[in-house]
Amino acid sequence: MSARASTKARNIMATAAATSVIEFGNATIHSNLPTARLIELAILRGEGDLAANGALNVDTGQRTGRSPKDKFLEDTPGIHANIDWGKTNLSVTPDVFSRIEQMAIEHLSQQEELFRFDGFAGADPTYRLRVSVVAEKAWHCLFAKTLFINAQASELDGFEEDWTIINACGMRLDNFQELGLNSPCAILQSLQQRKVVIVGTHYAGEIKKSIFYAMNYDLPEMGVFPMHCSANVDANDPSNVALFFGLSGTGKTTLSVDANRPLIGDDEHGWSDMGVFNIEGGCYAKCIKLSREGEPQIWDAIRFGSVLENVILDPVTRVPDYDDGSKTENTRVTYPVSYIPGAVIPSVGAHPKNVVFLAADAFGVLPPVSKLSREQAMYYFINGYTSKLAGTEAGVTEPQPTFSPCVGGPFLPRPPMVYAEWLARRIEEHDTDVWLLNTGWTGGPYGVGERFKLSYTRAFVTAILDGSLRPAAQETDPVFGLRVPTKVNGVPSDVLSPRNTWADKNAYDVKASKLAGLFRENDARYDISPEVRAAGPKG
Q1: 249 FRET partner, CA 20 to 30 A, in 154, 348, 445, 451?
Q2: Structural domains in the chain, sorted by start
Q3: Is the whole-model pTM more than 0.70?
Q4: pLDDT of amino acid 253
Q5: Catalytic residue flag (residue 209)
Q6: Cα 252 to Cα 101, 235, 332, 414, 527, distances in angstroms
Q7: Could you confirm whether 487 is annotated as catalytic?
Q8: Residue 28: how many CB atoms within 10 A of its CB?
């Protein structure tokens, strides 16, 4: 890291460490309990059940996914000019933030017991943030213990947090309209005070994503490109690192877990001058339709110490039914990254040779795999096309085409071009290849076609990472202008051209034209160069 970046990092941390101690009345605070005790208490308190595989299974209630319309950022003079205000970054006044924070503290102060976790975000100590979570549920503390990096006993002495998360999940904001909010649920974040206040939702993903949001604000000023991606490395070649960018449901976790490629992390990373590092200490995977055959490492990671969310258990045997989506399609499991055999600990790696953008295309018209030029990489990154899958957000019941800038729009406080420029800089510096991989539908749109077989998708990934796809012969897709290989080992050739998989070719042309038009409507939102804009769809 440069001297300038190092100084910036120290200044940020020095400011953050000034967080004041919060008092919670006479509540007994259980700090940094071991995993077994947290599980024991969660069960005794009726927060969850022990599944047959040893995992703690919990029900998150009405909210089974993130609540983006209820996420608000405190608007202060110190950060106002740096924020991309709008539908993603909704503002709340300091007065409202303070009022709700005090309401949450009062609610927690009325509890007999509270639970606290102290740990870190950032596997590279140079860019590490100290995180404290205070919650009324033991299982939320266990969630934090699995997702963040645990502190050693010696590091807990005199621990001064950079970020504080107050989780008052059992409190409802009945006066939300008076406060200018959208519902009795709210996730409030202050970048200046370095606090998060969560009320009215039990969904634990809000804990995890609030810290990713914080890192997305801080890291660019520290000389680091923050990324919503997973990462792994070749077991025999530590220089062969790969990144997988994708929103929930695109296969980011599944594809990065590979018996031949040790896992660095499954969701959030930073790319510094030295290489990549995991922001987290655990994994948060979707487990709908999970099978031992399809994803053996994730299957085996679900054991004592992991947390299942909203999975249906057999009432007698307590065996999880991963095929049952009656509660939600967004069933989840969290577990320490160390539960994956051979995972890289500490979770750091070299500069990546390959970057893979994942899109679950509900239209069924994107090619399954294509190699991107520098300009195309910029274009498809800034647009961030995929389909929101059922259950990943409140109100989403079937796939919905969406554009999420930089493949992580809900978690980006700064304008998207800040992150897009970091991508361009890094791939140029390290001659990194960039690919677009469609893990969505083929042979027709959602409801008509079917999702790509996982075996095909894995074959694409293998060919990318072993280098065999880089020199392969290519054809240019006439609608999207993407360079598509004409042959991939283990995949039928007719699958490579999406139009060939449709029985009704005219219907394909209509859908492809519609998606191309949606891309053009979306890219008009951004001030991008003519060269990057020209790299988009041709149809």
Answers
A1: 348
A2: 3-31+62-222 (3.40.449.10), 229-284+350-534 (3.90.228.20)
A3: yes
A4: 84
A5: yes
A6: 34, 19, 14, 23, 28
A7: no
A8: 10
